[in-house]
Amino acid sequence: MAEVEEQVSHPSEETTDESEEEDSEEEPKLKYERLSNGMTEILQNDAASCMTVHDKFLALGTHFGKVFLLDIQGNITQKFEISSVKINQISLDESGEHVGICSEDGKVQVFGLYTREGFHENFDCPIKVVALHPQFTRSNYKQFVTGGNKLLLYERNWLNRWKTSVLHEGEGTITNIKWRANLIAWANNVGVKIYDISTKQRITNVLRDNVSLRPDMYPCSLCWKDNTTLIVGWGSSIKICAVKERNPTEMRDLPSRYVEIVSAFETEFFICGLAPLADQLVTLFFVKENSDQMDEELCARPRLDIIQPLPESCEEISSDALTVRNFQDNECRDYRLEHSEGESLFYIISPKDIVVAKERDQDDHIDWLVQKKKYEEALMAAEISFKNIKRHDVQKIGMDYINHLVDTGDYDSAARKCQKVLGKNMELWENEVYRFKTIGQLKAISQYLPRGDLRLRPAIYEMILHEFLKTDYEGFATLIREWPGDLYNNMAIVQAVTDHLKRDPTNSTLLTTLAELYTYDQRYDRALEIYLRLRHKDVYQLIHKHDLFSSIEDKIVLLMDFDKEKAVDMLLDNEDKISIDKVVEELADRPGLLHVYLHKLFKRDHHKGQKYHERQIGLYAEYDRPNLLPFLRDSTHCPLEKALEICQQRNFVEETVFLLSRMGNCRRALQMIMEELADVDKAIEFAKDQDDAELWDDLISYSIDKPPFITGLLNNIGTHVDPILLIRRIKEGMEIPNLRDSLVKILHDYNLQILLREGCKKILVADSLSLLQKMHRTQMRGVRVDEENICESCHTSILPSDMAKTFNVVVFHCRHMFHKECLPSSGTIPGLQFCNICSAKRRGPGSGILEMKK
């Protein structure tokens, strides 16, 4: 609940209650201000009794019988002396050109504001209300109604005289009238009625609920939401009535319209006024509260609530307690609520005070957020609605937010917001940097400084770098990596780092940072020296990026010691910049590293390092024997004698066997396998590879007295050598392991071979038959011979022009045609001829003859 405090100090009216708005986290929906200027002077000497609101001006009636016209700001524009007693009601038509006034002494005046001609009448009883037709100015009938003891309708007839009609009487004093379009709603002591002026029918009677309340003390409040929706507030109950058209089939003697109560609910307090706000309702309540000292109820501050009507209840949206002047002396009947339909303005009228309530705009929303120190939400709201806000500046709100974060010690968030708030304002940026320096928080703002197209003075960046260099080497290194080198004076920072290195010469962080600074300054040789000294991973990137290969010719060993895989890849990728010979020369004293380099070179290209292949034999033998045999197999430039000598010296049997076989000494190689390795499987595999009958004979001879070898031969020899040769040479009585299984395998392999041969034979016979049938069908086909065909020898038409003469034509199966006399003699085999064109194909498709005679 929010409160409106009195702006003019009156000690007797001050309240000790603290504003609930300050404690509430819920933002109020409305804002309030007193209507001042001329209104203040009026209420000092008089008291407001009623007021009517037009979009362009206000009309105020007082207890001393005066009517004032005021502008929206409360300045008096016109004054009318109507009576000496209280003005009960003022009514304006929609155009605002005619006004109706009634007073407690029975006077009724209806006149134009620009002319005093109109209706003037004195009644013998008080007239409580008057209401003009909404289109009074435009209407020819000039209709209006008054309410006292009776509801009277006045209208001009065709003779320009006023005609009076009694619409209703006999139910007490009429206390309120509201006219909307063709519908007139009024309230008396019994309830609320609605009259249709177009059909001249009364269409409803809404009874009041609490009959115990005096109608003069708790008057009825009426308000039209639209042309067919009436809102009735009486006592503590509210009803929303919808005027609807009756179905023509149900009319009979009933009115053409009827009223349906779509919502009815009770409220906590007494209702003084109602006004619509979209689909919600603005309600002015009269509040009484119990006294702590006396057993009686006191008048409390009135409340202005926004509620959401429901069918049988309502939901409170907001509630504000209003501290109006002399609220302790006011009764329910002293308050009124008027609203301007053109704008969302609500006027709370009391005898000595008039308060204007209006919907809060975006500026008010931002004010509330700032007041609650919700600066981030205020900044977001200002950015979204920057075109609509009038009293606020986005940057000013942002600065307030930064100041708030600094005051609360959240320096990192404050620095981060600088990027968004300060934008391109260099002066503000520099002021903030110096402020952060003053409070010792340069580190917080360093990572958010502008570093793109928008930049501060180099001195600002240097100041921050010096600050980091004093206290945080890692942070200093991070800034050097992240900031472009042209933000600051590079030489000045290099000198500062050098000075610090004099005190701590082995600090790797400072050395790395110095190397980066040298790189920014294009002194790559110095940066390279530092990187190599530190064995830094970025050394290879630096060499590639800045083409420093000429600088590393004498540092190849260092690079290889650091990471030989990366170093070798880099050297091989850039052979055009550092030659193979130069690398081999530099690595001559480090054979292990030389082997790594030459091995990768050989993997990439078997021929590039061919002059070093002889050298590589020893290197492989020393450092990488598993790759020696693959090297010997793949190299075509390796001297075999030298390789054989080295392998024999080191007793490398497998490599020696390979070299002997490659040099043609297969029998010696087989002997080494059998004697040195004693591996019959390898011996058999070797014999298979060589496919030499003498080798098989040697293998059998060597194995004949070794039963395990015989078993291996029996299991594997069947597909290369006739097993009978081996079996016949086995001595009588020799015990051979797994002999039965070996013999079974031989027989199984033999049967398998027989089956394969028979299968192949069947396939061959079937294919031959198929092809023979195809050839026969082809040769049995006829060949069309007509005038378009020519002799392939004389190139004239194959058929004579005179078909009556005898002629001979020879047509081969290859479709070539000849005159018989154009063919050569048949040769050695009488009756057999070949196509001259296809004769290159021995016994080809043209070997058959189809002879035509006529």
UniProtKB/TrEMBL annotation:
<dbReference type="GO" id="GO:0034058">
    <property type="term" value="P:endosomal vesicle fusion"/>
</dbReference>
<dbReference type="InterPro" id="IPR015943">
    <property type="entry name" value="WD40/YVTN_repeat-like_dom_sf"/>
</dbReference>
<dbReference type="Pfam" id="PF23555">
    <property type="entry name" value="zf-RING_Vps41"/>
</dbReference>
<keyword id="KW-0963">Cytoplasm</keyword>
<keyword id="KW-0968">Cytoplasmic vesicle</keyword>
<dbReference type="GO" id="GO:0031902">
    <property type="term" value="C:late endosome membrane"/>
</dbReference>
<dbReference type="GO" id="GO:0005794">
    <property type="term" value="C:Golgi apparatus"/>
</dbReference>
<dbReference type="GO" id="GO:0005765">
    <property type="term" value="C:lysosomal membrane"/>
</dbReference>
<dbReference type="InterPro" id="IPR045111">
    <property type="entry name" value="Vps41/Vps8"/>
</dbReference>
<keyword id="KW-0813">Transport</keyword>
<dbReference type="Pfam" id="PF23411">
    <property type="entry name" value="Beta-prop_Vps41"/>
</dbReference>
<dbReference type="InterPro" id="IPR057780">
    <property type="entry name" value="Beta-prop_Vps41"/>
</dbReference>
<dbReference type="GO" id="GO:0031901">
    <property type="term" value="C:early endosome membrane"/>
</dbReference>
<keyword id="KW-0472">Membrane</keyword>
<keyword id="KW-0967">Endosome</keyword>
<comment type="similarity">
    <text>Belongs to the VPS41 family.</text>
</comment>
<dbReference type="InterPro" id="IPR016902">
    <property type="entry name" value="Vps41"/>
</dbReference>
<dbReference type="InterPro" id="IPR001841">
    <property type="entry name" value="Znf_RING"/>
</dbReference>
<dbReference type="InterPro" id="IPR011990">
    <property type="entry name" value="TPR-like_helical_dom_sf"/>
</dbReference>
<keyword id="KW-0072">Autophagy</keyword>
<dbReference type="GO" id="GO:0009267">
    <property type="term" value="P:cellular response to starvation"/>
</dbReference>
<dbReference type="GO" id="GO:0006623">
    <property type="term" value="P:protein targeting to vacuole"/>
</dbReference>
<keyword id="KW-0458">Lysosome</keyword>
<feature type="compositionally biased region" description="Acidic residues">
    <location>
        <begin position="14"/>
        <end position="26"/>
    </location>
</feature>
<keyword id="KW-0862">Zinc</keyword>
<feature type="domain" description="RING-type">
    <location>
        <begin position="791"/>
        <end position="839"/>
    </location>
</feature>
<dbReference type="Pfam" id="PF23556">
    <property type="entry name" value="TPR_Vps41"/>
</dbReference>
<dbReference type="GO" id="GO:0030897">
    <property type="term" value="C:HOPS complex"/>
</dbReference>
<protein>
    <recommendedName>
        <fullName>Vacuolar protein sorting-associated protein 41 homolog</fullName>
    </recommendedName>
</protein>
<keyword id="KW-0653">Protein transport</keyword>
<dbReference type="GO" id="GO:0016236">
    <property type="term" value="P:macroautophagy"/>
</dbReference>
<dbReference type="InterPro" id="IPR057779">
    <property type="entry name" value="Znf_RING_Vps41"/>
</dbReference>
<comment type="function">
    <text>Plays a role in vesicle-mediated protein trafficking to lysosomal compartments including the endocytic membrane transport pathways.</text>
</comment>
<keyword id="KW-0479">Metal-binding</keyword>
<dbReference type="InterPro" id="IPR000547">
    <property type="entry name" value="Clathrin_H-chain/VPS_repeat"/>
</dbReference>
<keyword id="KW-0863">Zinc-finger</keyword>
<feature type="repeat" description="CHCR">
    <location>
        <begin position="568"/>
        <end position="712"/>
    </location>
</feature>
<dbReference type="GO" id="GO:0008270">
    <property type="term" value="F:zinc ion binding"/>
</dbReference>
<dbReference type="GO" id="GO:0005829">
    <property type="term" value="C:cytosol"/>
</dbReference>
<feature type="region of interest" description="Disordered">
    <location>
        <begin position="1"/>
        <end position="30"/>
    </location>
</feature>
<keyword id="KW-0333">Golgi apparatus</keyword>
<dbReference type="GO" id="GO:0030136">
    <property type="term" value="C:clathrin-coated vesicle"/>
</dbReference>
